[in-house]
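INFO worker-7 received task bundle
INFO bundle size: 2
INFO processing item 0
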Amino acid sequence: MPQPFHLAIPVHDLDQARQFYGELLGFEEGRSSEHWIDYNCFGHQLVVHLDEVMQPQAANTSSVDGHGVPIPHFGVVLDMQQWRGLAEHLTKHRVEFVIEPYIRFEGKPGEQATMFFNDPSGNALEFKGFNNMDDLFKK
């Protein structure tokens, strides 16, 4: 497994972040204070930091496969079974997708599933799924 990454992002409300990342996404909470919360994001360290004056903003986009992909965004690459489970879970909980779950490069090298959605503070997330992790960087 690659080395875990550490990513710190701003949120405008820690209670909303706790509900979204902890309850909806099921990320285990680690250390926390009244100003930040650590989460185990599929083995990576995601830290949400309170920025009370932060206002959710519309993301810039880049055209990919005819979709407006939000820039910046972050997420995790999952195996296809995990990805499908997450997509079903988010759909069941009526998460509003920026880009609905779909398959890119179907039947080609690098075939992958992807979906985009925002957290309550407007941070864009992308989760990808691969049948074969060796295809991650295939051209």
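INFO item 0 finished
INFO processing item 1
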Amino acid sequence: MKYIIAISLLCIYTNCYSQIPVTIQHKIDSLVAAKAIPGIIIGTTDLKTRSYYTAGFANKETSQLFDAATQVEIGSIGKTFTAYILTSVLIKNKISDSAFIGTYLPDSIQQNSSVANIRFVELMNHTAGLPRLPNNMGTPINSMQPYENYSEQKLFSYLKTVIITKNGKVNYSNLGAGLAGVLAERISRKSYEQLLKQYIAKPFKMSYTQMNAAPNRAVSIGYFNDSVATYWTMNSLKAAGGIKSDATDMLSYIEYLLKNDQSLVIQNITKPTAVINKRLQIAKGWHILSLPNNSSLYWHSGGTYGFSTFCAFHKETGKGIFIAVNAFNKNNIVDGIGIDIMSKMLDLK
């Protein structure tokens, strides 16, 4: 993902979505009718009431409809989960987020000061200087699974020799987020799946948020153009976007963050740590948009070969949203809908 979305987010200030129909249902029905998207699920919350809106099909072949329990890939929204997990692990083990990561990596990588001197916070706010992806991923055996064969061994081999130049600027990196998850595993001596359950799924009461397709649950099919896109298996980079969830669980996620805003971990991960531009900052995982009323919108989007997603919340009002479209590269649509709904919920226009 690049920060093109930031341009769209700033449209809040120019009212560029004023032509979008007032009703959410009308808008998404129109998108499906125009064949712009195969299907969509939207969930909103104000901490008192949850509302869900759906249109189109979760599976076009079987005419399966979306509902709040339909599983989807959340893509890079999972980076906010990774930030929460790694921050929790660091606090538990009394490790500062400004500590160097080299101590917790194999000796052969510690010898590469370019990597060893990266700080934990720099992985979570994308200022480590790492590229979006490593250059030794190779050609995937299955073109629909670009990460499947990228093992931890390949990751460590890359980190032994890569030379990076830090400039303090935000450079969005799946590699950095994936490495953050690996470090959480190494420090805690638990798998990412175990950490996801321990720190998020169980305490947040997210029963169907996991790394694999949930058995005996309705699962949405994702589409890459007209082809079925299998759910990604992300191997060593799974912390960058390998989580599966549903709209019910994602609203539980947002509500937990809002209700427990004063907790040490949530305070930590929502504190600004880097500046992207005069209206956009980044915390740990979460992006922060300054709004006209001097409050902030926390947001993240995501994309896999089968899904385009958006998630946002507003601390001051306790309002939030999750959206998933089961198609590749529809973030311009998803982000636009999410921005428009949130701006209406916040009475910004």
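INFO item 1 finished
INFO post-check item 1: The two ends are 28 Å apart (CA to CA).
INFO post-check item 1: The CA atoms of residues 185 and 191 lie 5 Å apart.
INFO worker-7 idle
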